[in-house]
Design a protein that fits this description.
By secondary structure, the chain is of the alpha/beta class. The chain has helices at about 5-30, 45-55, 70-80, 120-130, 145-160, 160-170, 175-185, 205-215, 230-240; strands at about 35-40, 60-65, 85-90, 105-110, 130-140, 190-205, 245, 250-264. Helix 1 packs across helix 2 and helix 5 packs antiparallel against helix 9. It starts with 5 loop residues before the first helix and ends with a strand.
Length: about 260
């Protein structure tokens, strides 16, 4: 029997609740045009690419790039299941394997904060965009205004360890809008626009979400190897930390990110 990877859990729990709504928002803002060649940088399991295919008219090409083999396996599987014509490429964001002026439009959803060399990644992104091309990114805002992530970090700190909680804090590792603006401008993007955006997200089963979220994070499964009782305690702490955002069995919470649009 095939084992379930953290990328599978990420796709089944986090993508529908968090990354699909953000993908729709980013695609709406970018307004892809027919014939445009589109890059989904740090594509994860490919939700932005799939939303482009759903919402845009006749893109010229779709390319998803990610450093994680596990994420790309899921992205390819989901694309193949629907007949989606996309290229999936393993790539370091700071050394993209594409020629200059390759793409008209790029997306980067909740990933810039994780890049070890952000200036190099943005310079590479600019290099592979055509003159007049554009990029649309979203980057998580600070922990204190993102209650789901704050509760998750506290639960992991208490029941798994500070290293696990630190992986959640890293999701909010680039919250300063002024710093983000400076990074894009120093990479020689022009007309850099930044907006703080809140999406109100929900899941009908708060406990199922909590279990899936703790086991399907961007940075891997934080519950692997724990006893069932320890996992249960972590999940209960996560739900308790959510407070009023749990209503009956359902979960509703604000998710706040900086959204950037910039042009070459």
């Amino acid at each position: 029997m095939e084992s379930i990877t953290f990328a599978d859990r990420y796709q089944s729990v986090l993508v529908p609740v968090i990354f699909e709504p953000w993908a729709r928002d980013l695609v709406r803002r970018a307004d892809p045009q027919a014939g445009e060649h589109i890059l989904d940088l740090a594509c994860g399991t490919g939700i932005v690419t799939r939303q482009v295919a759903t919402l845009a008219r006749n893109p010229g090409s779709l390319t998803g790039a990610d450093y994680s083999d596990e994420m790309l396996v899921v992205a390819r599987r989901l694309a193949d299941a629907t007949g989606l014509d996309a290229e999936w490429v393993k790539a370091d964001a700071a050394k993209l394997p594409f020629h200059d002026d390759r793409f008209d439009l790029a997306f980067c959803q909740q990933a810039l904060q994780f890049f070890p060399d952000r200036p190099a990644a943005l310079k590479e992104l600019r290099r592979v965009l055509k003159p007049g091309g554009r990029v649309v990114c979203c980057i998580q805002c600070e922990l204190d205004i993102n209650p789901m992530l704050k509760a998750q970090a506290a639960a992991l700190d208490a029941h798994v360890g500070e290293k696990a909680g630190g992986a959640v804090r890293a999701i909010c590792g680039l919250p300063d809008g002024a710093e983000i603006q400076r990074l894009f401008e120093e990479a020689e993007f022009r007309h850099v626009e930044l907006e703080s955006v809140t999406l109100n997200l929900h899941h009908p089963d708060a406990r199922a979400f909590a279990e899936g979220a703790l086991g399907g994070m961007h940075t891997g499964d934080k519950l692997a190897g724990l006893a069932d009782s320890a996992i249960d305690n972590a999940v209960k702490a996560f739900l308790a930390g959510l407070g009023d955002h749990v209503e009956g069995t359902a979960l509703q919470f604000p998710h706040v990110s900086n959204v950037v649009m910039a042009w070459v």
